[in-house]
Design brief:
This protein is of the alpha/beta class. It is built from eleven helices and 35 strands.
Length: 648
Amino acid sequence: MSFLNPLFLLAAAAIAVPLALHLFHRQETRRVVFPALRYLLRTEKEHARRIRLRQLLLLLVRCAIILLLALAGARLVVSGRGAAHPPTAVVVILDNSLSSGRVLGEDRVLDRLQTAALDGLSAATSEDRVWVLRAGEPWDVAVPGTPDQARVRIRTTEMSAGRGDLSSALRRARQLVADADMAGGEIHIVSDLQASAFDAASDPAGETTDAADDPDIPVLVWAGLDAPDAPNRYLQEAAIGGGLPPLANNRTEIAVTLAGGDPEGDEVPVRLFIDDRVRGAAEVRPGGSTVLPVGPFSPGWVSGWVEADPDALRDDDRRWFAVPVRPPPTVALGGEGGPFVGSALDVLTDAGRAIRSGPGTADVVIAPGGAGFVAGTTARTVVIAPADAALLPAVNRRLADAGIDWRFEADEGGGEAGIAESQVPVDIESVRVRQRYRLTAPAGTPGQVLVRLSDGAPWIIALDDGRAPVLLIASPLDERASTLPVDAAMIPLVEWIVTGWGAGGGRPALRVGEALPLSSAVTEVETPDGERLPVDGSLELRTTRTAGIYRALRGDSLVELLAVNPPVRESLLTPLTDDAAEVLIGSDAEWVDDPGDWSGATFTRRQGYESWRVLLALALLLLLLESWIAASGGRQPRTATAPAPNPT
């Protein structure tokens, strides 16, 4: 038993008032000479006994009323697991990420999580402050509010197509509780607890990145969901053209990968939509891939999606794409490029993938040994190292004239090397390099290493500093320098150099929640829902809330299409293990598996049952009783009247 407002107990001193009135009460009587004195004395004694009993009862009732009012004002708390608790800062982490859209029976996971979050606040009072962090919307601003405001925010929470980052949300929640500086504080995690929602779940080094474990801030975890009955099936990728943009009047293909699910299960229908029309269909087994031919297209933008039959988690069964379609580029070959580069260009020309042209009108200039590279050109230029090291000064001079700080230098001790890292969309892992030069530049010089050899030396570097793009290749493209000319990757690599690299093709598909990179020409962005958002010159849009095609506009003119897809990690529904939970959430966290126990487990600093309502009700009843007793005392009992004395 305790009191939340013990100073109010001083009001109990008011009991002295009815005591003083009772002790100092004097009843005045008038003596009357009356016959039959024996009868009257007996009647007076009986009446006095009733008066004393009534006055004593009134005294007790009035003292009890004052005592009950004092206890109610002091907020008497009876020991037990009641609702009374000190003012508490509560942070509710509500997981509304993509995985919360999974259907369980007739409900979504999010519906159950919302119910649990509301149950956890059932004991909240107006003195508490509540934050609701939506784990699927890390960009959302959470402000403190009353429990009623928090309940409204929970009920109006919608599923996000983004990833739920519970580790970041937990760190943020700890900081909010610590900064609140209230008598109590705790964190409620209401989630499906998938392992991929925590930082360490995808750490390739196996190192955990858990939030600081603060035992002074209780963490309560709602774990009322069962693990999924079957592995989730989802579309992992829809890659058009093998990484190369489609060319006008040329057919291309879309490779679709279906991941998850049961590899031994039935084949799943997959459909391709372009311009809201079905343009292809196939069946693919979970864990497999299929290729859908499509095209040809006219110059412009091509966008659409690939979808599979939905399962319990429906929002990851569709992948979006958007790519530009351009005419085949014109290509010029400077100097003597060797038979292999020339043969590859002939193959592309015959297939309609490129058009041979002179250096002055070409979109792409291939410059073996720097031949054909002209400073100030607007064409994309590929500078290939010369076969003769004596020509290196001439190549470096051409680079210097173009304002490029990279240089080719002889590598005296270099032996044969393999490909260690590659960012080109062509399989060149089997290529062996026998002759190469070192590409060097002062520290801080712009340049992206696209291919790196096994000895750590860069082999292909892309330069794009606002001028015409330049590609540097550190080896001649002949059979003595490497195995590439006789490898199956030779023609695909030359095709990528001509049609893909630096051509301004569509960006790789972004993930929901990522910033949307935009050019300075864009003034508005139209979301998949049709809402237009102005761009204020920050060159990015931070609110990619939904998956689909975003239209970058300049006024009413289309500048670019960008495809935004759900993050693949949200499709991995494997729950967090006990060992990982102890590290990532905290060893002192309290787990509640039974949803029926959740409302009683929250607010860990409860002080029992606050009884002021009961005390006030009893005080009201005693007031009614006191009024009835006091009113009944005003009626005198009826007594027999003696006959008047004989005047004689």
